[in-house]
Design a protein that fits this description.
Oligomer: single chain
Order of helices and strands: HHEEEEEEE
Shape: globular
Largest sheet: 7 strands, antiparallel
Helix content: 25-40%
Number of strands: 7
Structural class: alpha+beta
Distance between the termini: 52 Å
Radius of gyration: 16 Å
Number of helices: 2
Strand content: 35-45%
Length: 127
């Protein structure tokens, strides 16, 4: 029972960290699409850090474990549109939309467990 309760606690915390990661990426986007989202290399694993000097979220390639246990990473993937302007596996690159995957991983019971959230992020403000 204790082992299960411990695992459930970690799953809940990982889920909250993944949701916070999505909110952080939206906040980063709101500080400027070009310098903060377009500049990220597609397929590269990034980590989130809170810049207390400027009071906002930022990305880094340096891994920092949350609470010494959880690895939270963010990956940007390019988005393509077909002839009907629908998201597709190939077609025309959409420079104003990216797919964001936030993954939280932790080691428990001799195995790595992950919680993943995915969403599409759009350049809402045109900057």
């Amino acid at each position: 029972t204790l082992k299960l309760a411990r695992h459930d606690w970690q799953l809940v915390q990982a889920t909250l960290l993944a949701e916070e990661g999505m909110e952080a990426i939206r906040s980063i986007r709101d500080f400027g699409w070009q310098p903060n989202i377009t500049s990220l290399t597609a397929g590269t694993k990034y980590y989130l850090t809170f810049d207390s000097l400027n009071n906002h979220w930022a990305t880094t390639t340096v891994n920092t474990f949350v609470d010494g246990l959880f690895e939270r990473s963010v990956i940007k993937t390019a988005v393509y549109r077909d002839g009907s302007n629908n998201i597709a596996a190939s077609g025309t690159l959409d420079p104003s939309t990216v797919k964001i995957t936030v993954t939280v991983a932790w080691f428990s019971n001799n195995a790595t467990t992950t919680k993943t959230l995915e969403t599409y992020l759009a350049n809402l403000f045109g900057a």
